[in-house]
Write a structure and sequence with these properties.
With 284 residues, this protein is an alpha/beta fold. The chain has two domains: 50 residues, no CATH class; 188 residues, Rossmann fold (3-Layer(aba) Sandwich). The strands form two sheets. Strands 5-4-3-6-7-9-8 form a seven-stranded mixed β-sheet, with helices on both faces. A hairpin with a 4-residue loop joins strand 8 and strand 9.
Length: 284
């Protein structure tokens, strides 16, 4: 059908995107025009965008922390607000490396496309990243982004497949786990609720199901002085912080109005070692 139409001009693309409700129609048009190799491909890309597919899934990449993160159809698209999670992790990592005298060990749970792990690999000289996700499509995508000898990606439920030798050695544990309450998913933009995996959005009745599990898992993995960072909403942040406090950590909330981001950060109290890791049946 697209092949039979006259080639789209740049103003045509802008007009079609604007009519479909794309707020940044001019910017999106530039990206689509630059990406399309033929007139037919451009028409197909515009058609898919007008139908509501996320721009990043059409382009095959998303910009995140100055990187092009490869994004496949059906994978959660990294949001700019998650850059706050990366900034906080980077700020904490140098202290961890100096204390340990070895590469900072980072675990990225619910990694999705691997955007956070890829950004940390790019930002830090001395780091090894272990990323995990339950969605096989996300894992395949993450393995294209979290690359090199210092990047490792595992398929499994939360921390279930992390190597046992990481227990008690993790300096920074980050999680952009789903935190949208189940009943609020229907209120999300169609781009998200129709084209991103439910497992990347649904945080349970109060949005905190995965946060509870991350908090309970942290003692298995954190090194003395280690930190946990969880992205959440400003409304949910106090409850997320309490979950981490309940397992013995000292928690605080970091917000960034420009990014519209909120991250709960938690650390073991100074001079207090984490408890012995509980038995865990993960990857051997």
């Amino acid at each position: 059908m697209s092949d039979a139409r006259a080639p789209l001009s740049p103003p045509d693309v802008v007009a079609l995107l604007r009519a479909a409700g794309c707020v940044f129609a001019e910017v999106e048009a530039e990206l689509l025009l630059a990406a399309a190799q033929t007139a037919a491909e451009l028409a197909d890309m515009v058609d898919r965008r007008v139908q509501g597919l996320p721009l990043e899934q059409i382009l095959g990449w998303a910009e995140f922390c100055g990187l092009r993160i490869l994004v496949e159809p059906g994978v959660f698209v990294p949001r700019r607000r998650t850059e706050l999670l990366v900034r906080q992790a980077v700020a904490l990592a140098p202290d961890a490396a100096a204390r340990a005298g070895a590469p900072t060990v980072v675990v990225d749970l619910c990694c999705g496309s691997g955007a956070v792990g890829a950004a940390l690999l790019a930002a830090l000289d001395r780091v090894e990243v272990h990323a995990a996700d339950i969605d096989p499509v996300a894992v395949r995508c993450a393995r294209r982004n979290v690359v090199g000898a210092r990047g490792h990606v595992y398929e499994g439920d939360l921390d279930a497949q992390l190597p046992a030798e990481l227990r008690g050695r993790v300096d920074v544990l980050v999680a952009n786990a789903p935190y949208v309450p189940t009943e609020e998913i229907r209120l999300m933009p169609p781009e998200a609720r129709l084209h991103e995996p439910r497992t990347a959005l649904d945080g349970g009745a109060d949005g905190l199901d995965l946060h509870r599990r991350v908090a309970q898992a942290a003692p298995r993995w954190l090194a003395p002085g280690g930190h946990v960072l969880i992205e959440t909403s400003e409304r949910q942040a106090p409850r997320t912080a309490q979950l981490l406090t309940d397992v013995g950590l000292v928690a605080w909330v970091v917000t960034d109005d420009e990014l519209d981001g909120t991250v709960v950060v938690a650390a073991w109290p100074t001079g207090v070692a984490p408890p012995e890791p509980a038995p865990h049946h993960g990857a051997p």
